[in-house]
Amino acid sequence: MMKKSPEEKFKFRIYYPWKTLLLGTLLLFYALLTHSPVMQSLLHAPAEVFQVLYLQAGFVAFLVIALTDVRAFRRQQLKLKESMQQLWSNKRELQLKAQTSASHTDKLKSFIGDKLLEYIEYDEKFLHFKSIASEVRHNGVISFDKVQSALLYAKDHSLPDEQGTQATLYSEALVGMRYLWDLLDLSTTDNMALHIGNQITQCEEQVFEAELQGQSLEDLPVSPAFNPRQALIDSLTLHLGVGLSAENPADYNTEADQQNDLVMFDDEHFFRVNLQSCESLLGNANHFVLMLENLLRNAQFFAGKKQYKSPFPAVAINLSERQQYLDLAIYNRGPHIAAEQQGQIFQLGYSTRRVKEHNGKGLGLYFVQQIVQGFDGSIAVHNIENSEAEYHLRLEFADGDIHNLTLNQTLEDGLPLIAGAEEQEQKQWQMEVSKRLVSVEVHRQGDDNVSRLQVNNDAKNWFDPLCDDKPGWQITLTGRKQEKLSFIPLDIRGVEFQIRMPTLSGRLDGIPALDNGPDVDKLDEHFQLPDDF
Asked: Which residues are within 8 A (CB) of 74 and not within 5 positions of it... i.e. 6 or more apart?
């Protein structure tokens, strides 16, 4: 339907009854002619034209046309009245819209004005903070040197005690002061990533100079490299207050040059730390510690929630080296990060913890990305999902009997459910064991590896040994005589951060840097070279 124009929508004209007026005039003139023979003779018309019958017929026609015009006039009056009413109603609507728009405009002006004032105030505060920070930095150097000298003197001249508690306290205080100074140093820089990159470049120059002079890195006054394994342990023990113990105590060595593969847990079995052999990194260890502290505090916050608790450690840390790159993976049982948020979580001021009881400042992950870029590394985040699976179980009993079972794992609202053949899905599968069980073999369809679990009197609980950090299932034996076998699919949903950084030898060999920042190579796409003209 075509939209009517304003002229067609509102009509304010009433047409004059020309037909009735004209016909009435002609009828009167005809009536005069019928009663005036003199005028008839002047017209030279036949006498039959002026009969009374024709006059009567004309009068009837006049009445019909007059009634038609009267009806048309009434309809025009009604349309005019409706148009006037519609005009007034539209006028009131326009007035209401104008008032609403004016109100919205005032609110928008007020909002923009408030934001401008906030930005102006923020700029003033930022400039004021920079001036204060430079003064704090200047005075902090003097205070730091005094405190560091006092702690070093106290550490070297403290009275020996049986457990070395005093020396340990002084060492931890010294580590804390150096970490505090490095935080202050980073907080007063204009570009954190560039500042860290410049320091790493200076460390690289020191390494080259030491090689040319035939010196060892340990002989330098300040070591240009650090052990990332020890930095990770220090982050957990000294800064997060986590007590760690090795899965195999014989493998544990607190020396910084320890390179044996090591698996550690905390006292509450909340963290699982897998440390593999890896090379040193160039730069300041405290920058690496700050990155780890922000990632691990984030993982602690989410994984400590009741809805994310699990029978296996909620935070898994894997540190390894591959192709002259340090690989660090931190997994936690926290909420998934939406795809549209994954590109925003590293922005300054953006936080996913916008809830009533906790308001994130949006600084932690921003610091993490800046530090990673300073180390010429890359950082990525992935959501970990549950998946459907088919498990084949082989039960071996003491009398030689072998039972083969097939269990199907399905998903309901993302949660795993398990069921045997022609059974209903449930959270765990159970079976009664009437005789002594010797071993259980678990094979996942599509996987070449087979997990074999030996059953003895001590072991009654097993997790998937092929995936220690994110086990997909748990097997338990309960009862006094271990008469009930349970297979429990585990919910492994969570988030994993993956970080890669070039190692010491990688930087010296000139391997390409991993930078997750903007693609600067595309900036010159729209520019022409001189040869193009």
From this structure: none
Closest CA to 248 of 270, 280, 275: 275
Look at the pTM and tell me if it is higher than 0.85: no
Each domain of the chain, given as residue ranges in start order, spans 11-126, 189-385+495-515, 389-492
Question: Which has the minimum average pLDDT: 122-126, 285-289, 406-410?
Answer: 122-126
- How buried is residue 521: exposed, middle or buried, by Cβ count under 10 Å (0-12/13-18/19+)? exposed
SS3 category, 75: helix
According to CATH, what is the number of the domain 189-385+495-515? 3.30.565.10
Could you tell me the CA-to-CA distances from 82 to 6, 12, 292 in Å, in that order? 15, 10, 76
Which contacts (CB < 8 Å, 24+ apart) does range 81-85 have?
Answer: 83/9, 83/10, 83/11, 83/12, 84/12
**352 and 337 in contact (C-beta within 8 Å)?**
yes
CA-based nearest residue to 271, from 312, 214, 224: 312
| pLDDT tens, residue by residue, 328-371 | 999 998 889 988 888 888 887 777 665 444 445 667 888 899 99
d(CA 298, CA 410): 31
